[in-house]
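Q: Structure tokens for this one, please.
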Amino acid sequence: MSSMATHQSSGSDEDPQLVMDQRKKKRMLSNRESARRSRMRKQQRLDELVNQVAYLTNENNQTMMQINVLTQQYAKLDSDNTILRTQLIELTERLRSINSVLRFVEEFSGMEMDILDIPDPLLKPWQLPCPAQPIMASAKMFQC
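A: Here is the predicted structure, written as tokens:
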């Protein structure tokens, strides 16, 4: 009997079922902690994505507003350009008429006149019948 008492009191000879239960408990606790950390990482990633969506949505709205402003400016410039082209055509026709009258006067009066040829402004806009004037531009022109 004394050998049996010694056998039970020894620490290495614990009940195998108790050892298995302790390991199972330890594994369950480890799994719970791992799952908790995983949920925290997932929540953190979700928060980052929500913040990124908010930032990109804001940036998209600002870009859309800039596009709208630039589209309006383009439409205004296009309209102004159309008006200017129409005026150019009208003025060119008037100048041609005046030149025609001057040629008639020159032919019948015998008086020599300096009548310049008028280039077609739509085909050759760089050869307009006006003195060359520098076009000044600044960076302010292109700002919203």
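A few notes: Confidence is low (pLDDT under 50) at residues 1-10. The CA atoms of residues 49 and 81 lie 46 Å apart.
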